[in-house]
Amino acid sequence: MKKILFLLLLILPVIIYSQKLAKMPYSISIFNNATMLPPASLTAVVNQPLHPGILLGAEFGWKENSKGKWFQNANLGYIYHHLANQSFLLFTQSGYRKYIGKFSLEGSLQAGYMHCFSLVDRIVMGDDGKYKESKGIGKPQFIFGAGAGIGFRFDQDKMIKRVFLAYDVRMQLPFVKSYVTMLPNGALSLGCQFTISK
Question: What's the pTM value of the predicted model, to 2 decimals?
Answer without folding.
Answer: 0.78
